[in-house]
Specification:
seven-stranded parallel beta sheet, nucleotide-binding (chains A, B), disordered C terminus, Rossmann fold, about 350 residues, homodimer, Methylmalonyl Co-A mutase-associated GTPase MeaB (chains A, B), 2 domains, globular
Chain lengths: ~350, ~350
Amino acid sequence: MLDVKFNIRQVARTLSLVENRRPESHAILRAAYKAGRHVPVIGVTGPPGAGKSTLLDRLALHWAEQGEQVAVIAIDPSSPYTGGAVLGDRFRMDRASAHPRVFVRSLSSRGHVGGLSRAVQDVVVVMAAQGFERILVETVGSGQADVEVATLADCVIVVSVPGLGDQIQAGKAGILEIGDVYAVNKSDLPGAGTFAAFLEANLDLIYPGRPGVNQGGQRAGQERAYANAVLHRRHGNAGTDESFWRPPVVSVCALQGDSTEALCRVVEGFLSWQRATGRDGSRRAERFQDHIRRLASGRLLAQPLPAGAGPSLPQLADAVAQGEMTPWEAAEIFLDALSEAWLRREGTVADPVARSAED
Amino acid sequence: MLDVKFNIRQVARTLSLVENRRPESHAILRAAYKAGRHVPVIGVTGPPGAGKSTLLDRLALHWAEQGEQVAVIAIDPSSPYTGGAVLGDRFRMDRASAHPRVFVRSLSSRGHVGGLSRAVQDVVVVMAAQGFERILVETVGSGQADVEVATLADCVIVVSVPGLGDQIQAGKAGILEIGDVYAVNKSDLPGAGTFAAFLEANLDLIYPGRPGVNQGGQRAGQERAYANAVLHRRHGNAGTDESFWRPPVVSVCALQGDSTEALCRVVEGFLSWQRATGRDGSRRAERFQDHIRRLASGRLLAQPLPAGAGPSLPQLADAVAQGEMTPWEAAEIFLDALSEAWLRREGTVADPVARSAED
C-alpha cells in the first residue's frame, strides 16, 4: 500500500499523474498492481435523468458513515461531476463528496476511444492500493459503456425511472442483461409500481428456468445465447442444482433517501453470494483478461512499422476505398507487418506510459 | 452493384446474412467492398428523449420525396426501432419507414463489444452496393458511441432539446465536439431560444479563432489539444487562410416538421463544402483505416495459441490478480505468443466470416 493514504491532495495528484500518463505514473501503477489489493467496485449505470448521481451520493454516504473510505469515479458524460470536469471545475461538491471519507474523481470519456475501460481499470487499482475500501463507478446507460462497466465492477446497479418511454425502451434493449441489482428510482412518481412490475416481468424473460416462468422464446436466437452465456457465468443457472442469483428490483427514492439503505443491503447480499460461490474471483479474472487483451491490442497497433515493411495503413485504406482490396485482406497484410515489427522490436522494458494506438 | 436493388425482402435477407456472419456473407461483403461505391452517410446522435427518431423520420422522408432510395440504420438501444428489434419485431413502422423508398434496419449493440462500428461499417458498405443513395445512422448520445458514429458518418447531426438539465450537461461534456451540424429539437418548448444561444456560445468556445471570440482557455490542456486536432482535421482552422466550417445551430420542431427542410439544406451545404475541400475523401480514408485497425486487432486476439506457446491468457490474468506481474508485462508476453502464432498460422485465405475476438 502506498503511503499517501487519505491525504486527499496527494491522492488527487497521484491520480492526475496516472490519468495524464506522466512519466511518474510508471512507478505508481507498478506499485499499485503489485500490491494486488482488491476492494469491492460497484458500478452504477442507467439513462440520463434516472437520478444516478443523487443515488450514488446516497450510496457513498451510507458506506462512508459505516466507516469506509469511499472513492467515486464518474465517467458519465452527462454527469454533473463529469460535465463540471470538462468545463474546468473538476470537483462539484454535494452531500457525499463533502464527507471527509468520500473522494470524487471524474474521468472524461474523450481522448480514450476504445481505451476508457483501461483508464478506469488503472484508476481503480491505484485507488485500491491507496487504501480506499469501496469504489463506486458512475457511467451512462448506453450499450457499449454498459458492457464496459459490467466488466469493471464487482456489482452493477442499473438505475431506471418510471414514466419515460425512451427509458423503458432502453431497459428492453440491453441494460436488463448487465445488472446484478435493479433500482427503480423516483419511486414516488405515479406509475412506479407498474414500472417495477414491468422490470420484474422482463427479468423473468431473461432469467428463464425460474419455476413457473416463461422461457423467453421471443428473443432472437443469437442474442439469447449470448445473453445466457454471460448471465450463467455471472449468476449461475437456475436450471441446474447450483446456487444462482436472480437480480432483485429495489424501489428507491434517492432524493428523499427512501430505501437507499435497503439497496445497500441488497448490494452487500449480492457481493456475499458472489464471494461464497467463488464468482468474485472469476469475475476479477475476466476483468484482468480483458485488460491484458486491450493492452496487447493497443501496443501492437502502436508498433512503428519500419520503412519497406509493406504498404502503410493509409495506403491500405486507400486501396480499400478504391475497391481494390477488402478490409480483411488489408488487415491481414497490416497484421503481418505489425507482427514482424513487434517481434523484432528493440528494447524489452515494458513501459505502461508508452502511448498506445487506443489512446 | 448487386442485382438485389430494392427488392426489399432480398435486401433484408442479404443484411441478415451479413449481420449473422453466415457463410454466404463472405461473397456478399467481398462484392460490396469491391464495388467501391460511396454514398453520403448521415449520423444522427443525441441523448434519449431528444426526439432523434422523429427527426430521423423527417429527414428520411425529405430525401425519399426528392427521389432518393434512403436506408436508415438504428443502433441506439433506446430507439423504438432497436427496442422493437430486441423484442422480436424487427420493423416498427411509422411515416418514413412506410415510404416505399425508405428502408429501416435496426442493429443491436449487444454481441458486438468493441465491434459495433465494424458491423455498422459492413452494413453501410453493403447498403451502398445495393444501390441505396443515402444512409442515415441513428445512435445514442454517449461518449464512445458518439465518437464511433462520427467516424462512420460523412456528416454528424447532434440533436438536443431545451429544458433538460442532464442534456445540457451532456452537451457540455462532449457531443459539442463531434457535430458537423447541431439541431435544437422541440423548438416550440419554452427556453428553446436560450438553449440555442447557449449552444452557439459553447461552440464559440470550441471553435476559437472566429473573430471576436473567446479563445476557450477554460478547458484542460490535453482535452483541448485533442479536440482541436480532430476539429481542425474535419472543419479546417479558422486561424489560417484555409476554408473552414463552423457548425451551425438549426432550431427545428420534428413533430410538426418545422424547419426540418432547412436542416436538410444545411446538411447538403456541409456535404458540398466537404467535397469541395477534399475532406470527404480524407474522412473516408480515416474510416477505412479505423476499420482495418479494428479488424487486425480482432483477428490477432482471436489467433489460437499452440500448446507450449507460453502462459495462457487465464494464467497471465491470474498472475496479475495475484500481484505477481503488471498487466503490461502480461500484455507483452501475450503479444509475443500471438505474433509468433499469427506469423506461423496455416492457410492464408482471408475469411471475413471468421469470428474474431471482438465479436
